[in-house]
Amino acid sequence: MVLFPFLGAFVLAATAVHVAGQQEGFLSIDCGLDARFSRRKDTYTNIAYISDSPYVDGGENHRVAADQESSTNDVSLLTLRSFPSGLRNCYTLPTESGAKYLVRMEFFHGRYDGKSSPLSLQFDLHLGTNYWDTVTLQDTTDDWWSEAIFVAWSSWVPVCLLNTGTGTPFVNTVELRPLGASLYPDVTIDESISMYRRANMGGNFTLFPDDPYDRYWGSETSSSWANLSTKKHIQQDDNSVAVPVLVLQAAVSTINNVIVLNVGTWRVYKRSFEFKFFLHFTDIQNTQLRRFDLYVNDEQWLQTYSPPYLDISYIYSSAWNKTTDGKYNITLAASPTSVLLPMINAYEVYNNIPHDTPRTSTKDFDTMMAIKLEYGVKKNWMGDPCFPAKYRWNGVNCSDLTNNITRIISLDLSNSNLTGLVSDNFTLLTELQLLDLSRNNLNGPIPYSLCKRNARSLVVRYESEEDMCKKQ
Ligand SMILES: *[C@@H]1O[C@H](CO)[C@@H](O)[C@H](O)[C@H]1NC(C)=O
Ligand SMILES: *[C@@H]1O[C@H](CO)[C@@H](O)[C@H](O)[C@H]1NC(C)=O
Ligand SMILES: *[C@@H]1O[C@H](CO)[C@@H](O)[C@H](O)[C@H]1NC(C)=O
Ligand SMILES: *[C@@H]1O[C@H](CO)[C@@H](O)[C@H](O)[C@H]1NC(C)=O
Ligand SMILES: *[C@@H]1O[C@H](CO)[C@@H](O)[C@H](O)[C@H]1NC(C)=O
Ligand SMILES: *[C@@H]1O[C@H](CO)[C@@H](O)[C@H](O)[C@H]1NC(C)=O
Ligand SMILES: *[C@@H]1O[C@H](CO)[C@@H](O)[C@H](O)[C@H]1NC(C)=O
Ligand SMILES: *[C@@H]1O[C@H](CO)[C@@H](O)[C@H](O)[C@H]1NC(C)=O
């Protein structure tokens, strides 16, 4: 690894081990799919898609209009779930706490509601409690996807759709892909990133199985770019980005001896004007010297760079790039000594997902999910139990914050159709001061450990008998 601290860029050379193709741990949800058709396989990727009913409580199932089906060749997009009621609706995805994931939600309207184009629809997505993306659909045939990379902070991760008053939110697929811990090393429990663009320059649209992590690599071509490609093997042994070989085998350069390659210009209107760039290079020609300088907004980022021959290398922003207007462009300019023109194989651009909203403690959230599942609680129990405050779960009250984390201090489950025994799971809410279980069909004793753990302060209401713990 060669470090250019003065430029704020890292150039990473080949070092580590090969990442084998895998599909283990993929969760692929086809929203709105009738449970009878669950485990339907995608014809291209051969990934099995399942019904969304175990992961979501609200919403309605729909199917795109028959005459719109030809607009997509992706069968999982043909059904969807829409959320006409409730300001926030969430899918709650099972995760392994501390593991790194890619989550993707895909949106194709297809006139499911019988309305005609043009469409002007916007709604927000939250990852846990934090703003992730704004879905913007101009037309019923638009295909939008949002992707985030994050480290799971609990055994469940909610992804939420928020109605912002500009149309009914809906979603066609929700996909969760485990990434190795070594991928995207900047992503930690305190930093999540949202994909802005991921491009396969001069190549075709690429996904699983060519990308074992099922990232989408969009095709970018232009009549002012020369298309380069090779069938030669490319050393793919840096597992911090793991760009698919197929993506690296294509590249673009300039035509007509133009010495400056405009990789792209971007403008974000999102709440965060912060960007991170990953530029992927491998020289597939190597006939003569190729050397170029790299600029972000006309400011030199890296000087006299030579991509290695048939070996991957990448350059990325080690810190967030910020501009006040959200405008960026990247250009590559041939160095005076260079014989060959600048080239690039692929790039990725990400936005910061600001972690600016507190959340419920991991243990309390996991426990609340266990209680919800154990009793089949039917309430607005979606997303984080405490935050954002206006979506707090019914019957839940939360403590003041410590390090932006809250604890659950009261739980009112009275008159909630609970049946069975009083669960030991309640004992795991160790900060609880009030637990109201009255007016249900519960039986059996209050677990001894429940009173013991919280003996000083916990009040349990159970079948109209007040303060059960103190009586025992
Ligand atoms: C893109 O796909 C077309 C059609 O399958 C194929 O002919 C072409 O070689 C592909 N291009 C690259 C760069 O792989
Ligand atoms: C490169 O390929 C794209 C897509 O096939 C095409 O539109 C473009 O004109 C090609 N570039 C050149 C210089 O031929
Ligand atoms: C790139 O950004 C700089 C600074 O904002 C601007 O002067 C320049 O015109 C831009 N170039 C392109 C190709 O958009
Ligand atoms: C982008 O970020 C790098 C650090 O990663 C910094 O060196 C560079 O000046 C930034 N450029 C702009 C235009 O913000
Ligand atoms: C809590 O969140 C706010 C907003 O993101 C942040 O400024 C602050 O540093 C955080 N506090 C702690 C203790 O993490
Ligand atoms: C907690 O609830 C889960 C169901 O979500 C159940 O499998 C488990 O046995 C319960 N644990 C305790 C300690 O009651
Ligand atoms: C929630 O707890 C706070 C104290 O933290 C209290 O002031 C408030 O009244 C409680 N709200 C409900 C609905 O119990
Ligand atoms: C309890 O269940 C009954 C019958 O299934 C239902 O009618 C009622 O609305 C439920 N009450 C609550 C509070 O969920």
Automatic annotation (TrEMBL):
<feature type="signal peptide">
    <location>
        <begin position="1"/>
        <end position="21"/>
    </location>
</feature>
<dbReference type="InterPro" id="IPR024788">
    <property type="entry name" value="Malectin-like_Carb-bd_dom"/>
</dbReference>
<dbReference type="GO" id="GO:0016020">
    <property type="term" value="C:membrane"/>
</dbReference>
<feature type="domain" description="Malectin-like">
    <location>
        <begin position="29"/>
        <end position="351"/>
    </location>
</feature>
<keyword id="KW-0732">Signal</keyword>
<dbReference type="Pfam" id="PF12819">
    <property type="entry name" value="Malectin_like"/>
</dbReference>
<dbReference type="InterPro" id="IPR032675">
    <property type="entry name" value="LRR_dom_sf"/>
</dbReference>
<protein>
    <recommendedName>
        <fullName>Malectin-like domain-containing protein</fullName>
    </recommendedName>
</protein>
